[in-house]
Amino acid sequence: MQHLDLTVIRQALAWARQGETLWLCTVLSTFGSSPREPGAWLVARRDGAHVGSLSGGCVEEDFLERLAEGAFESPVQRVRYGEGGEFDGPGVTLPCGGLLEVLVERLSPGEETLAHLSALEAALTGQRPALRHVYLTGGAAYLEDDAGLGERVIWPPASNGEAPGRARPGHVQLRVGPVARLVLAGMSPVAEACAEFAQRLGFEVIVCDPRSEALDALSLPGVERVATLPSAYIADGGCHAATAVVALTHDPRLDDLTMIEAVTSEAFYIGVMGSYKTSAARAERLKRSGGLDEAALARIHMPIGLGLGSKTPAEIALAVMADIVRVRRGRARDDL
């Protein structure tokens, strides 16, 4: 999940607490070129205030205009944008003949909506991955516990004699898991470049460094700064299964402690910067002083990142974030 998803749900919660009626839109499927993947959210009010996106422009404008005119009064409905969709037209042109299918839910104010949105926020912050069931007739929705792995939008098998792939069943399942998080162990020029790339990729970014003056030098809005040892932050529950932990300082006192703690966490990516020689020496230290076995060491990407021949901080950060995306998307290095 992206950090934008958490922003959407938190804004929805704020509006719901104010007694507002909300429209929660979820991208169900895309065909052709689309800047947003299935599962992406947008929340809006009738007056046009909104957070999130569905396509990056034209679809949002059309949806908000129709919403202001009184459309989408049903508790739930599916709409299609693009060639052949019900909202096709000169003002709604998706690139490459694309087609976008969106679930639109009308959420009335009340305790039920507040409880549901609060549960979504908990799933996004890593407390409890969930599978969200939405019924397409009537709009009933509920959550159940989930492993958090797999496609974000799931159509259960067809039933009642329907031919698979030709008709949608009566409900859709929407996977909601922790927002992708990047924990940067210590400030450095490479860490700052990584933070900027990660934000663009939709990660929640957290920089841990016991030196408050180093954190003060970071000028990126939206990056969380934690003035503590990264190992202490991780030990205190700072990682979930959608977390990447990277150490980019060249300070073995900071980096080694971070690695020792990170391998005990659920983090999907753990990496530390250094040459092959430096990495070999670090592995020996981690075995000798940190008590890490071969299985634990195998979890650590060292040297970190893809082998792009990077030299500058920005190039190294690009190699690091590219490798994190590769692992998150389940791609082997040999497949690149």
Quick gist of this model?
With 336 residues, the protein is of the alpha/beta class.
Describe the structure.
With 336 residues, the protein is α/β, with parallel strands linked by helices. It folds into two domains: 3-176, no CATH class; 181-335, NAD(P)-binding Rossmann-like Domain (Rossmann fold). The protein is built from ten helices and 15 strands. α1 (3-17) packs antiparallel against α3 (111-124) and α4 crosses α10. It is elongated and about 65 Å long. This is XdhC family protein. Residues 182-324 form the XdhC Rossmann domain. InterPro entries: MoCofactor_Util/Proc, XdhC_CoxI, XdhC_Rossmann_dom. Residues 15-81 form the XdhC- CoxI domain.
Question: What is the N-to-C order of secondary-structure elements (H for helix, E for strand)?
Answer: HEEEHEEHEEEEEHEHEHEHEHHEH
Integer average pLDDT: 88
Largest sheet, spatial ordering of strands = 12-11-10-13-14-15
| β-strand amount | 15-25%
Give the count of helical stretches: 10
Please give the number of β-strands.
15
Q: Give the helix level as a range of percent.
A: 25-40%
What is the end-to-end distance? Answer: 23 Å
Which class of secondary structure composition applies to the elements? alpha/beta
Q: Which geometry do the CA atoms define?
A: elongated
Which stretches are low in confidence, meaning pLDDT under 50 for 5 or more residues running?
88-92, 161-167
Organism: Halomonas saccharevitans
InterPro entries: MoCofactor_Util/Proc (IPR052698), XdhC_CoxI (IPR003777), XdhC_Rossmann_dom (IPR027051)
Pfam family, one: XdhC_C
Protein name: XdhC family protein
